[in-house]
From TrEMBL:
InterPro entries noted in UniProt: AAA+_ATPase, ABC_transporter-like_ATP-bd, P-loop_NTPase
Pfam families tied to this protein: ABC_tran
GO terms assigned for molecular function: ATP binding; ATP hydrolysis activity
PROSITE patterns linked to this entry: ABC_TRANSPORTER_2 (PS50893)
Organismal lineage: Bacteria, Bacillati, Actinomycetota, Actinomycetes, Micrococcales
Keyword ATP-binding recorded: yes
Species annotation: Cellulomonas biazotea
Gene3D superfamilies hit by this protein: P-loop containing nucleotide triphosphate hydrolases (3.40.50.300)
SMART domains: AAA
Protein name (Swiss-Prot/TrEMBL): ABC transporter
Length: 303
């Protein structure tokens, strides 16, 4: 199983007069872990709900494994959307929930689910509605991983979990995906934490796509420059500086855009160049003056 591909063209979704997705077009590669990054209200949940056929699109084309997912038993059966609320039967014990999943989900692995319950210290006899928020989130994670759906959509599922539990989730997700590759879309605000998991990234803002590419290509849109503060300042003259840190006489600036002689100039000035973090790139893309739309990457910056 390599997972379902997703293709959307001019996808629009509206709630009354609110446009949650405004003619977005991009693809999600089958078998990859894609990060869906966006600020609050950017349209992430709406997008994932359309893929899972929880919500009907208003316009455009959506293809999941080559087919329209709306009322499509095949693609719906191969898609698992887990939201922060858990998407489980709240008033049935965890072990009953696992039995439902084992009956309904062809790739569900009960042994893997039970190992994950142990890892997150969840009691199989407990009902989700009698668990803490963090425990419910952890159970959602267990369901999302053990269902092994060809299209697994995890919508900020880990937000209720504390840091050790979140890191256990990232490790478990990666290990399971390596053994059972499938398409995973992970929406998150915690970009620094999830960055290492992501092969591809889609950044949306106010219902529009600001960037959609593999994470390495996106990171190459900018660079960090580190060294003596004076030399750093001279190097970045005329550049778009999106972050700057100073420690004593050493400074680090994050700039968007690269030039062919960067490495040569940096060497001559005794500066070190590094890759830009997705978090800085995300802040740059989505940062904007109140009420103004964010800039998408310009062609030179995005290619
Ligand atoms: N049921 C609804 N009725 C009306 N408007 C809605 C509804 N659900 C979402 N919206 C609006 O659609 C837009 C996109 O919301 P969506 O929940 O998809 O964003 P999100 O990126 O998932 O946000 P968050 O990170 O805060 O969960 C927002 O403007 C939101 O207010």
């Amino acid at each position: 199983m390599t997972g379902f591909a997703v293709e959307v063209r001019d996808l629009t979704a509206r709630y009354g007069s609110t446009t949650a997705l405004d003619a977005v077009s991009f693809e999600i590669r089958p078998g990859a872990i894609t990060g869906l990054l966006g600020r609050n209200g950017s349209g992430k949940t709406t997008f994932l709900s359309v893929l899972a056929a929880f919500r009907r699109r208003t316009g455009g084309t959506v293809l999941v494994d080559g087919e329209d997912p709306w009322e499509n038993p095949r693609t719906m059966g191969g898609t698992c959307l887990v939201r922060e609320s858990g998407d489980v039967v709240l008033d049935e014990a965890i072990k009953e929930n696992l039995s439902f999943l084992a009956d309904r989900r062809p790739h569900f692995d009960r042994t893997a689910a039970e190992a994950l319950l142990d890892r997150f210290e969840l009691d199989p006899d407990k009902r989700p509605d009698r668990m803490s928020r963090g425990q419910r989130s952890a159970f959602g994670v267990v369901v999302g991983i053990a269902t092994r759906a060809p299209l697994t959509l995890l919508d900020e599922v880990h937000l209720g979990m504390d840091a050790p539990a979140r890191y256990a989730f990232y490790d478990a997700l990666l290990a399971d995906w390596i053994e059972h590759p499938r398409t995973i879309v992970l929406s998150s605000h915690l970009i620094g934490e999830v960055e290492r998991l992501l092969e591809d990234v889609v950044v949306i803002d106010k219902g529009r796509v600001l960037a959609a590419d593999d994470a390495t290509t996106l990171r190459e849109q900018g660079l960090t420059v580190t060294g003596p503060a004076d030399a750093v300042d001279a190097f970045v003259v005329g550049r778009r500086v999106v972050a700057r840190q100073v420690l004593g006489r050493t400074a680090q600036a994050t700039v968007i855009g690269t030039a062919s002689d960067d490495a040569q100039r940096a060497r001559a000035a005794g500066l070190e160049l590094g890759a830009v973090g997705l978090q800085d790139l995300f802040v740059h893309l989505t940062d904007r003056a109140a009420g103004e739309p964010a800039d998408a990457l310009t062609p030179q910056e995005s290619r």
